[in-house]
Amino acid sequence: MNIETERLVLRPFLERDAADVLEYLAEPAVNCFACMKLKNLEEAQAEMRKRISGAEYSFAIVHKETGRVIGEIEAYPESSDPHGDGNAPQDTFSPCWMLNRAYQGKGYAYEAAYAFFDYLFREKGARRIYAYTDDYNIPSQRLCEKLGMRREGLFVEFVSFVSNPDGTPRYENTMQYAVLKREWLSQHREL
Ligand SMILES: CC(C)(COP(=O)(O)OP(=O)(O)OC[C@H]1O[C@@H](n2cnc3c(N)ncnc32)[C@H](O)[C@@H]1OP(=O)(O)O)[C@@H](O)C(=O)NCCC(=O)NCCS
């Protein structure tokens, strides 16, 4: 499945994307992606092979003009009742988005995320899409707001991805944003 926008194609990852992905995952930009760090091309190729199985929900963001993979966007179905008996619908999604630094500030993340949200709501049964973002991650918060997501709350010292120099966990404050399908459709009636 490919999703096409004016300047981008969202498509499943291929093994040959390894070098482009290594370029932005050699030093993940934010602590929440620290565990995705790739050490070398071999590790990146192994990672690409793993990603091939998630093709419906995990997309490489390809820049049409250069043919390069400039980032990624993904979200997998989650239960609307995570503590229930497993019978609740899998209609909730939480996207992870990331661009190569050289391609940020050009509207590509918004273009990709808008198309991805529309795909999740219209084709993949999404009822609610929510996003977590660190309280200092202004570009990600702006992206949520431009996508019409509501700010739902701030979780103080919610999660730890990295340690302090003394080995204790460093906790982050996390903002939650969300948009419902009915809100999305009423904002984008033209589509
Ligand atoms: C979060 C992230 C994906 C946002 O990327 P981005 O490029 O800043 O986001 P956008 O696509 O919304 O583009 C931003 C700017 O491009 C500008 N822009 C320039 N040319 C444009 C064009 N042709 N069309 C639209 N916007 C354009 C816009 O004005 C916009 O600025 P604004 O938000 O002040 O209005 C990016 O910062 C990133 O990869 N960060 C590291 C990973 C990360 O933090 N992920 C989220 C973890 S929660």
How does the SSE layout of this entry go?
Blueprint (H helix, E strand, L loop, with lengths): L2 E2 L3 E4 L6 H8 L15 H11 L6 E6 L5 E6 L17 E2 L2 E4 L8 H16 L4 E7 L3 H9 L3 E14 L5 E12 H7 L4
Helix pairs in contact: 1-2
What this model shows, in words?
With 191 residues, the protein is of the alpha+beta class. It has one domain: Aminopeptidase, CATH 3.40.630. The protein has five helices and nine strands; from the N terminus they run ββααββββαβαββα. It has a five-stranded antiparallel β-sheet with strand order 1-2-3-4-6, with helices on both faces. A four-stranded mixed β-sheet has the order 5-7-9-8. Helix 1 crosses helix 2. It is globular and about 40 Å long. The protein starts with a strand and ends with a helix. The model has no long low-confidence stretch (mean pLDDT 95). The structure holds coenzyme A.
Tell me the strand order in the biggest sheet: 1-2-3-4-6
Q: What is the CATH first-level class name?
A: Alpha Beta
Q: Let me know the average pLDDT.
A: 95
Shape summary: globular
Compute the number of helices: 5
In the CATH hierarchy, the third-tier topology is known as Aminopeptidase
Q: What structural class do the secondary elements suggest?
A: alpha+beta
CATH architecture: 3-Layer(aba) Sandwich
Beta strand %: 25-35%
Radius of gyration: 17 Å
Order of helices and strands: EEHHEEEEHEHEEH
List the ions, cofactors and other small molecules found in this model.
coenzyme A
In helices, the fraction of residues equals 25-40%
**How many distinct beta strands?**
9
Count of distinct structural domains: 1
Low-confidence stretches: none
Largest sheet: 5 strands, antiparallel
